[in-house]
Amino acid sequence: VLVQAWPYFGTIMEKTFKEVLEPKIRAKNVHLKTCTFTKIHFGEKCPRINGIKAYTKEIGRRQVTLDLQICYIGDCEIHMDISKFNLGVKGIQLYGTLRVILEPLLTDAPFIGAVTLFFMQKPHLEINWAGMSNLLDVPGINVMSDSLIQDFIAARLVLPNRITVPLKKNMNIAHLRFPIPHGVIRVHLLEAENLVQKDGFLGAIRGKSDPYALLRVGTVQHRSKTVSRDLNPIWNETFEFVIHEVPGQDLEVDLYDEDPDKDDFMGSLLISLVDVMNDRTVDEWFPLSKTTSGHLHLKLEWLSLVNDQEKLHEDKKGLSTAILIVYLDSAFNLPKNHFEYSNGECGAKKIKNNKYLKKMEREPSSFVLLTVGNKTQKSKTCNFSKDPTWGQAFTFFVHSAHSQSLHVEIKDKDRDSALGTSVVCFSHLLKDPNMTLDQRFQLDHSSSDSFIKMKLVLRALNAEEPDPQRVKAGVSASKQGPVRVMEKGGNQQKFVSPPRPEASEAPPVSKDSAALESLLKKDSGEDLDTNDSSAAPVPSETVAGLHEAEREQNPEHRPSSALHTRAVVVPTLPVVQELRLAPSVASLGSLPSSCFELSRSNLDLYNGTEMPLGEIQLTVRYASIRQSLVVLVNGCRNLVPSSNRGVDPYVRIYLLPDRRWTSRKKTSVKKKTLNPQYDEKFEFFESLEDVKKRTLDIAVKNSRPFISQERKELGKVRIDLSQEDLIKGFAQW
């Protein structure tokens, strides 16, 4: 679609630049009156969408949510003349993940009420400047100009900012542009251990590093204190982030060694906030990625936003108890300058100068400073208007709702003077049952008919109790492999459960998966990733898996190293079939420490004939931009129940040979179904060369009570990634 439409888009944009943008630039400033676009060409190369993910869970039924991975390496050329200078752009690179929300869905045409667009993180941008003797290519200026444009995009298009376009007439889009955030994540940065030494000392002798952490969610970043000369630093600091989109936003943690010249990178972590939201509290040691050693101890708490004044009691530890959401709409009848309402004599003396008088006669270019406690946020600037419209949202953490207040100050960018101020005590909000005020506020120190229109919403932070039935994600919340690392000294190996015999032949590829595969051949989708080793699903864990049943009841027991080696060897297919078809009771019992009962495990071995165990649909692809293997678990069908009470299936994934607990991935649990739908994505951050040497080990398991005797494993498949075209990807049952 984009390839076909691109020339037409280019024509529309050329017209827009000449007829709309050029007059606007000329009106901005007297020096820009000669501005002319001499060349506007959007080139032959159009943007690409490398992948699309559609969300169906954890969102409302009246919306469609899509993530588009956009990549634009363009050959556009735009030149403009200003006075005697020539300035231009010759090529742009832009890539990032754009979220598109279609809501609300309607029962009549156009079926969608509005489209909302925003980037989850700041997109990557590079511009090749031309003209002005390539002044803007000078390294310092080049970076400065690119970052200014990135900031311009961030102020409008990166969360929490969004663009909403109504498709239906008279559609109220205020609640779509500024939805209430999903919640707050409280991050306790506790300590780290075994960090990499970065500081050299006297040449060959290694010194100790001075580590600090950068924590980031979207555009908000916090920095921890620096711990001097310590590879096992203890911080014990707490940071709070407002979460606007789940799923979508992640917590990024980077560790650095502070140096006088350039700080050295010491490892990073990416944590999925969906898992934290579902688990409510995660307190784990996470292994750091992109480094050779090191673990980070974090405690993460999910706080939901509730309309309950009883939860607003002051926290004795000084932590936040609420958040204030400010929807800054507009102002009316702002004075042209400070002297319109200040002392007349004072003003008269200052405005005798004719030149200054002209400057003051024009409409103000105003911005707003909003302050709660010691935190101040600044709005964008609206140029030359006494009735400016900002249309922005801001959030503030509140420690004491009964005593704090919001201070608002409107300023003119050309003069360091206030055009009006206002103070709103939160006690006014508490008088409203919804803790909401949506009104015009009279401005002080301004004209008598000057107002500012805002909507203020106060919400208490509530730490809910986790669901005792839920299987916790733990460290698997980490997207870079970190899955739960046991306490120090504990067993860090997670053992695989008893295998279920599998069909020795590949199940036929269904029409829909064949169609999906043909799509994948044309382009590699970010999330479209599956694999096809169904031709020989080889359960190499056949031996190792038999001992999980006892291990759960007897945690002290550790298998012998001999058993480990046997577990890792992948037998050839005939041997596996022999194992499947004829596991004698004697041979099973002879394995060390096996308390595996055939009758109880219900292996479906009826007189040596196999029963099919069902199918799993997977999509697998290597995402080059993110340097990660993406595995999408779509769903299962026709699973065989392991007990009369039904099964609660979930899927567990390892990227062999790494079978550590910390690198395990798992889906959510689906209750009482033999045909579960997951549509859950997992990423393994490894280079393509490394991934090509690995094997995907995927097991479908039954989540059963701890003391239950039911069989846990429902089926398993192995995929040899060296045999697959991972850049193209594949989708298959």
UniProtKB/TrEMBL annotation:
<dbReference type="GO" id="GO:0005509">
    <property type="term" value="F:calcium ion binding"/>
</dbReference>
<dbReference type="InterPro" id="IPR000008">
    <property type="entry name" value="C2_dom"/>
</dbReference>
<dbReference type="InterPro" id="IPR037733">
    <property type="entry name" value="Ext_Synaptotagmin_C2A"/>
</dbReference>
<feature type="compositionally biased region" description="Basic and acidic residues">
    <location>
        <begin position="547"/>
        <end position="559"/>
    </location>
</feature>
<dbReference type="GO" id="GO:0008429">
    <property type="term" value="F:phosphatidylethanolamine binding"/>
</dbReference>
<keyword id="KW-1003">Cell membrane</keyword>
<dbReference type="InterPro" id="IPR037752">
    <property type="entry name" value="C2C_KIAA1228"/>
</dbReference>
<keyword id="KW-0472">Membrane</keyword>
<feature type="domain" description="C2">
    <location>
        <begin position="304"/>
        <end position="445"/>
    </location>
</feature>
<keyword id="KW-0812">Transmembrane</keyword>
<dbReference type="Pfam" id="PF17047">
    <property type="entry name" value="SMP_LBD"/>
</dbReference>
<dbReference type="GO" id="GO:0061817">
    <property type="term" value="P:endoplasmic reticulum-plasma membrane tethering"/>
</dbReference>
<keyword id="KW-1133">Transmembrane helix</keyword>
<keyword id="KW-0256">Endoplasmic reticulum</keyword>
<dbReference type="InterPro" id="IPR051634">
    <property type="entry name" value="Extended_Synaptotagmin"/>
</dbReference>
<dbReference type="GO" id="GO:0031210">
    <property type="term" value="F:phosphatidylcholine binding"/>
</dbReference>
<keyword id="KW-0479">Metal-binding</keyword>
<dbReference type="InterPro" id="IPR035892">
    <property type="entry name" value="C2_domain_sf"/>
</dbReference>
<dbReference type="GO" id="GO:0005789">
    <property type="term" value="C:endoplasmic reticulum membrane"/>
</dbReference>
<dbReference type="InterPro" id="IPR031468">
    <property type="entry name" value="SMP_LBD"/>
</dbReference>
<dbReference type="GO" id="GO:0005544">
    <property type="term" value="F:calcium-dependent phospholipid binding"/>
</dbReference>
<dbReference type="GO" id="GO:0006869">
    <property type="term" value="P:lipid transport"/>
</dbReference>
<feature type="domain" description="C2">
    <location>
        <begin position="612"/>
        <end position="733"/>
    </location>
</feature>
<dbReference type="InterPro" id="IPR037749">
    <property type="entry name" value="Ext_Synaptotagmin_C2B"/>
</dbReference>
<keyword id="KW-0106">Calcium</keyword>
<feature type="domain" description="SMP-LTD">
    <location>
        <begin position="1"/>
        <end position="168"/>
    </location>
</feature>
<dbReference type="Pfam" id="PF00168">
    <property type="entry name" value="C2"/>
</dbReference>
<keyword id="KW-0677">Repeat</keyword>
<protein>
    <recommendedName>
        <fullName>Extended synaptotagmin-3</fullName>
    </recommendedName>
</protein>
<feature type="region of interest" description="Disordered">
    <location>
        <begin position="467"/>
        <end position="562"/>
    </location>
</feature>
<feature type="domain" description="C2">
    <location>
        <begin position="159"/>
        <end position="286"/>
    </location>
</feature>
<dbReference type="GO" id="GO:0005886">
    <property type="term" value="C:plasma membrane"/>
</dbReference>
<dbReference type="GO" id="GO:0035091">
    <property type="term" value="F:phosphatidylinositol binding"/>
</dbReference>
<keyword id="KW-0445">Lipid transport</keyword>
<dbReference type="InterPro" id="IPR039010">
    <property type="entry name" value="Synaptotagmin_SMP"/>
</dbReference>
<keyword id="KW-0446">Lipid-binding</keyword>
<keyword id="KW-0813">Transport</keyword>
<comment type="similarity">
    <text>Belongs to the extended synaptotagmin family.</text>
</comment>
